[in-house]
Specification:
The structure is a homodimer. Helices cover about 70% and strands about 0% of the residues of chain A. The first copy, chain A, is mainly α. In chain A, helix 1 (about 10-20) crosses helix 2, helix 2 packs across helix 5 (about 75-95) and helix 6 (about 100-120) packs across helix 7 (about 120-130). The first copy, chain A, binds a DNA duplex (30 and 30 nucleotides) through helix 4.
DNA sequence: AACGGGGCTGAGCAGTTGCTTAGGTCCCCG
DNA sequence: CGGGGACCTAAGCAACTGCTCAGCCCCGTT
């Protein structure tokens, strides 16, 4: 907020810290700066309330420069969504694929997934809450990625349930609930809060663990 | 776990029922129609992507008519947010205040809160995800209401933890998690889905129950 | 019948939006 | 040296935005 006339040399570390290293590979440099500016702006104000002038300004460029690197404003959102989703899916997949019991895999998956949503809450907010602004084709492509993360999680629950390690009455519903829990972190997390991303991840992993474990009957 | 059936299927068969009976008291009629139109539009496209012309159109009126009943578009959002929050807080409070063990109170609270978010998902979506578009003063007022619902839930957890009925390591964190779970229902729920609001409420109440209960040590 | 006022509309204003276009600068290649 | 492509800007267009205003209709009161 309040950086309309900010010095161009300014918040490079700021942007990098809050807005992600996931876009490191994007070239040329100007295209990456535009992406980072867009992530920031979309997360702060939402897609529709963000102007192309704002995005270009954050990247230290004129409004017209945006259209050299991206066809439309929506394509900018799509790139963010795509890269962000790919990143989060791969975080989840890696955690769930590791060895150990199904309980281990589940705990690791939740912890890492949550941690990603907290650490990259700026990107995650855009990724999770601005989907509706995507064009139809782009939307379909993203939905496919989301299906993947749901399937990964469901796979762990099914495996644990089949082996008797878990006791889950409604696997699909529980999967959805766990996803909700993790995703919603991006909505409320603030680096100023009292908990670190890792602490939240650990807490949530524990809560989820309890959700799927059979209870001592009172 | 008293049976609190109430009327069997008091669901209004009106198609508009999805858009809420919470605004029944709003008069005159035109003002209410505008509110309902705004809820629909905001839920579909988001506040910033919705035009005053769209809202007025849904209410069957000319764009200018909106300004007879509301000062700005933002005030429309504020009214929706306020009424919606008041409604959801009162649903939560009523459920948590009822008798029974703390486990009963918690289960009832989650079930009713979730059910509200599913049944009134259109309103809930606006209420929960469009806050950022509110003006500063209005925003503060709404945040206060949200604090209330968090406190109600935390109260139940604290009570159950103190009495030994629950075993919660991190009460604030768990409160937040439960709130997340319930609220996020509004984001993904669709009446076309395979689950009824009541089924989701019951499932979630069970999941939360497990979250706060001490585990059988394997 | 005359009045008055709330409810509503058609027309439109000033400002903003996403995006385009014509032209400039730089640097790499021959 | 000169040509060409990548990159960027200033200026601006057409469309749309939230919102206003003069005036019309309708209805209960006098």
């Amino acid at each position: 907020m309040a950086s309309e006339t900010g010095s161009p040399a300014k918040a490079d570390e700021d942007v990098r810290a809050s807005a992600d290293e996931s876009f490191e590979g994007v070239t040329p440099d100007a295209a990456r700066r535009l992406l980072l500016g867009a992530v920031e702006a979309f997360a702060e104000r939402g897609f529709h309330a963000t102007t192309t002038r704002d995005i270009a300004g954050r990247a230290g460029m004129s409004p017209a420069a945006l259209y050299i690197h991206y066809k439309t404003k929506e394509e900018l959102l799509f790139q963010i969504s795509k890269v962000g989703h790919e990143r989060s899916v791969s975080v989840l997949a890696e955690a769930a694929d590791g060895g150990g019991t199904d309980a281990d895999r589940l705990a690791r998956a939740v912890r890492h997934f949550v941690r990603w949503h907290a650490e990259h809450h700026t990107t995650a907010r855009v990724v999770q809450y601005e989907l509706a602004a995507l064009g139809e084709e782009h939307y379909e492509e993203i939905v496919e990625l989301r299906r993947r993360s749901e399937e990964i999680l469901r796979g762990v629950l099914e495996s644990g349930d089949a082996s008797g390690e878990f006791e889950v009455a409604d696997i699909r519903g529980t999967t959805l609930a766990v996803m909700s829990l993790c995703i919603d972190v991006a909505r409320w997390y603030s680096p100023k809060g009292r908990r670190t991303p890792d602490e939240i991840g650990t807490l949530y992993a524990d809560l989820v663990q309890r959700m799927v474990t059979s209870q001592a009957v009172a």
